[in-house]
Design a protein that fits this description.
By secondary structure, this protein is mainly β. It contains four helices and 39 strands.
Amino acid sequence: MLALVCIYSYQAFAAGTTFYYSINTEAKPTGYGKVYVSTTEMTPTDDQYRNYKGTGTQKITVGATVQATTLTAYLFAKPEEGYMFTHWTKVNPSNGSETTISYSRFASDIVTTASTVEEEAEKVKFNAYFAKKGLVFPVSSDEGLGAVSIDIPDNKLGDEVTLTALPDKLIGRFLGWRFGDSSTLTKENPYTFKVTNSTAGTYTAVYESKETETKGIYCYVRNKSSKRLLGVSGTSESTLAASQRQFKNSLMMVDRDNARAHCLPALVIKAVGKSTQTGALEGVEMFSQGISTREIGHMTFRVEKKYDGSYYIFGSYDGFTGYINDRGNTTRTYEFIGNVRTPSLWNRYEEETVAQWYLDIIDEENPDNYFGAMPDPNCKKGAKYYTTLYTAFPYQCLDGVKAYTIDKLDGNGQPHLAEIKSGKVPAKTAVILECTGTQPIDNRLMPLSEDIDPITTPNLLKGEIWLDDESGDEANYRTLFDPSYMRILGDYGRFYNKNVTDPISGKVLTYIANNTCYLDLSGEEDPAEVLEFTTQEGVLKGDADGNGLVNMMDVTTVINYILSKPVTKFVFNNADVNDDKLINMNDVTGIINIILGRK
């Protein structure tokens, strides 16, 4: 079973060890604005802002077993009248060089120290830069959702300026630029134009909330160092002590260049959390496979943005703060996936990229971050490819993909496909997908945050979400394949009474494959070993008008058809009673014989 190793690299300190920081901020140029820094989230009062604010030494007292500790510095900038804020930088203490970390007046940064001596406190410095307002002045409609920048802050007539809207990708969506009081939005971003008397004025970057706290966002969680994607493979055994349960046996890392990476529902993470005003999410639960990190490890997380666009993901439990890392430990080979590795929890932030993650948002604005279907090339019928899918999240079919349930067996005992006309598949709905190609990029499925009404019509397909755990009894969380009543979609779009073969191991699977479906014929007596699905209604010989009955109206319909008279509906296969591929008086005689019970 997959076991996640929580790595605690501890160094012994005396109980109640105190760690020291010296955090300072400075407004540049002096007189253009004021700044404030805090180690707690807050809203500064006017009298707390200063032209220069040195917070002095910060003290953190922690338990005996923690090697180093971290805190978040919250930064606040306030420009003077006639001036504008431009950006925050972090100063390198060794050479004085500066790195831009944020264009928002309200920012944050994680700082770390190992110093236990006050005189040797870790020195951290941030600079806030301000500039005189020009004739063109950009502002944000909501700094909690996104910031703005301009390349020439003190612009004048004749300058060509570029405005850039910088939405917070986790929580904000850019709608457009509004000039003055106009209701018209210019969607161009960056937006470049010449400063004239008619273009001078205030430009507002208009943002809307993604409602991350209620709807969440779908994303791939990609490690900066290894490029691997974070996924959910199971649930934590409830008998484990809570202190051992953070992620034990539950998460996996899959190589991003794995051919199947974009078709695995376990890698599609839905993050739900409350946004802060400083580019972070708190109280974050990450959902996948129908479970969440809170269920797995009794822990919620904070997603803290780093200046380069990556994030730290960390949470605290029972006095321990754990950062999710990818340290590349190979654990086992998974069916259909290949080698997977386990992430780990590390008790301190490091400048190593193994602790940094990119959240690649999956939506229409980010076409490179796609989830899609990957049919077997042999599962082809006509020009289309077919596969089954079962996910814990709803999705919209794109790229011409069609989704079907199996609502019944037709008159010939074959599975009948009922199309989901909206193309929206509810969560935990077993479907057959009709695709135009064999690669996920050709068959995109867009995860949806909205709740979709469940499909209430009968569905003979049953789905499987595979959740690994350490119980040692797969029957507790997997569906054992039974050839007596289960049929699996295979070559040529047919259902067979044989399970699929894992391409990784070459073995026939004992259980239903992860996130796939099977045709449940448990209600049928002596079901056929091989069935071929159809979108047509079953053939009922003699029912020429397709109303489900065979009577004299069918005789009239066939005669009208032969005489080229108009008919409301004509079902050729039903009318061709003798199966000679012709419609003539022999078929009329055949229908009369069916009505009279002679045939």
